[in-house]
Amino acid sequence: MSMSDPVADMLTRIRNAQMVEKKEVNIPASSLKSAIASVMQQEGYIESFSVAGEKAAKTLSVKLKYYDNKPVIDSLQRISKPSLRVYVKSTEMPSIMNGLGIVIVSTPKGVMTGQKAAAQNVGGEVLCSVS
After folding, report:
1. Is residue 1 over pLDDT 90?
2. Does domain 6-71 have CATH number 3.30.1370.30?
3. SS3 7
4. CA dihedral of residues 10, 12, 70, 41 (deg, nearest 10)
5. E-assigned strands of the chain?
6. Pick the CATH number of 76-130 from 1.10.3720.10, 3.30.1490.10, 2.60.120.200, 2.40.100.10
7. What processes does the entry annotate via GO biological process terms (predicted)?
8. Cα–Cα 20 to 30 A to 4, which of 77, 85, 95, 127?
């Protein structure tokens, strides 16, 4: 069975794992999911991630981060969906919680936060928001 939106599945698995206070969640790996996890790690929303396995059986293991027994990630939402893609220019980059959260954007220069994309003057597809 094929999945219509693997990125939404990744975000849902992370949300569900945090609700039951798991330390780690395993997700089928892809290069886009690894790039999203890398941005989340750089911004301090997850502790770490690793990719294990070979070819089609690769697994992305994400170690979740907690502070005072509460998840660091308060909200994790998919913005651009397969049925409705959302593209923005560098000057129209959305702000989440007045700058307290981030948007993750897929640009021609790679996957990065909305702030970095605006600083590099590139737009792209808004994948998700994290706060």
Report:
1. no
2. yes
3. helix
4. 20
5. 24-28, 46-52, 59-64, 66-67, 70-71, 76-78, 87-88, 102-107, 110-113, 124-130
6. 3.30.1490.10
7. translation
8. 95
